[in-house]
Amino acid sequence: MCQTPQNRPLIDSAITFYGAGSMAEAIVKGLITRHVIHPERITMLNRSNVQRLEELSQRYGVQFNSDADAKHQILKTSPVIVLAMKPKDAAKVLKELGTMLSPDQLIISVIAGLSIHTTQTLLGKNQPVARTMPNTSASIGLGSTGISFSKEISEEQRQLVLTLFEAVGQVTVIEEEKMDILTGISGSGPAYFYYMMEAMTAAGIRGGLSPEQSRDLTLQTILGAARMVQQTGEPPASLRAKITSPNGSTQAALETLDRGDFFETVIAAVNRCAERSKEMGAMLKEQAL
Q: Is 84 known as a binding-site position?
């Protein structure tokens, strides 16, 4: 089919996802749903779960291969490889991968805690590397991704990485030393809000609302609050103050949260996530020695 400027994808380069878990699927879904890349230009590989690869192929039309020799050839020739395996599997995989790569192949990592230096050390070469931390909201085009680049990245490769993640949400390019705290905020952040929604929904049900009513009220409240911050540009503290009448019901609720040290507990959760990211990175670094 002739490609016009209207139907030409933003990314024409072949991309191989090495790892096929929830994060890889979220990115792939976002890319395909938003017509950033044709499904046949994406190949998905994993260690041994062929059923998972078949499911993804049927769902999105992506390519996959479970034959060892074929996988070796795909990894050897793919211009872009996205590392999306579990952190515990990364060291062994990267050591094997390093022997296959040519200098111009781009490595994009979405593995929490895995630094650029450790990635290159495990590969055994100074490969062009983009360290990223997306979140699963990329699957609906509303992701938030932090990105750091190695000095070996070319301008063309840099633009490809930015195009890939900007197509599925917002991108923040940062110094690599800030990646762990970013992980604590946006990488794992959706889970904090899901947990809050669970609690609010449960409160509604316990108070007599139906599960559907409580869910819908909670969902619209979260959506509306986020949009208010986004569209008004006002700080959350100002918007909160506007709806907190002295001695009113909202103030009573917030005081209850404060008795549980809500504000500091959230900060502690973000910091603990960042610490855990560093810990995972340290374990991977040890395996590179």
A: yes
